[in-house]
Amino acid sequence: MDVVRVMEALAEQGVTVLFKADAERMRDRVKPWTFVASGSPFREDLLVRTDAVSVEACLDACLPRLREFGLVIPE
Q: What highest taxon heads this organism's lineage (predicted)?
């Protein structure tokens, strides 16, 4: 999966996407990656978020939920 293509596709649909790598959690080997999506396709108080062991694991957890909201995401 091309992470940049996914992020661009989401941004084009009004979604703000954030990926974060946490140095402390990486050092402790505890789900160092965070994915957060928010923005105009959702209600103001809604975030799609997960913490995971890798960028790919974040996407595996969050993309199905984003698709449920009707967003078009490349494979």
A: Bacteria
Q: How far apart are CA 41 and CA 50, in angstroms?
A: 18
Measured CA to CA, the distance from residue 53 to residue 1 in angstroms comes to 16
Structure tokens at 25: 């959690």
Quick check: 28 pLDDT over 90? yes
Q: How far apart are CA 14 and CA 52, in angstroms?
A: 24
Q: Judge if pTM exceeds 0.90.
A: no
Tokens 């494979």, residue located: 75
Closest CA to 49 of 9, 15, 18, 73: 18
